[in-house]
Structure to design on (173 residues):
């Protein structure tokens, strides 16, 4: 399979962004190839196109399937397994945000809660440090609760919320 210049550029960019976000470059590149290619692709073709080992592609596909952004597809007349990305950009973004929250926000919130409980039980730090810890915990808990509320909304409501926020921002200047 020969990538078009657009697909090649997005695969390269996705790989760079994945690495910055703590996601394997290969996982991000496999996802980009599947997302920007308009047809399901078999694993051997992914490996050949990206120049990575077939075993690496298999691991990438398992991870992406685990997140729910890639699914297995069987094509009539072809015994190979093919893979495709979900194409709903809102759903894709939602899955990626959930993964980032799980990897980054949840452990930070846990650490803040543990530190806060320890400090309440036996204060050892200055009042200023305690205040900052308290503010940070309050902020993370508020954002976590807000994220949960937004995630429970139907997707159409979330789209309207974002569009309304953009209108309000432009109105505020």
């Amino acid at each position: 399979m020969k990538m078009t210049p657009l697909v090649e550029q997005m695969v390269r960019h996705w790989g760079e962004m994945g690495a910055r976000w703590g996601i394997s470059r290969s996982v991000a590149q496999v996802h980009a190839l599947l997302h920007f290619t308009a047809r399901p692709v078999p694993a051997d073709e992914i490996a050949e196109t990206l120049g990575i080992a077939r075993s690496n592609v298999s691991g990438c596909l398992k991870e992406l399937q685990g997140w729910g952004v890639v699914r297995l597809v069987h094509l009539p007349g072809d015994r190979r397994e093919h893979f495709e990305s979900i194409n709903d950009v809102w759903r894709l973004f939602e899955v990626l945000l959930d993964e980032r929250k799980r990897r980054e926000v949840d452990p930070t919130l846990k650490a803040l809660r543990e530190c806060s409980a320890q400090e309440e039980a036996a204060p050892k730090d200055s009042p200023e440090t305690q205040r900052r810890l308290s503010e940070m915990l309050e902020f993370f808990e508020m954002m976590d609760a807000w994220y949960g509320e937004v995630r429970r909304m139907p997707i159409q409501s979330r789209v309207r919320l974002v569009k309304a926020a953009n209108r309000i921002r432009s109105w505020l200047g």
User: Anything to note?
Assistant: The radius of gyration is 21 Å. Residues 89-172 form one domain. The chain is about 75% helix and 5% strand. The first strand starts at residue 41 and ends at 42.
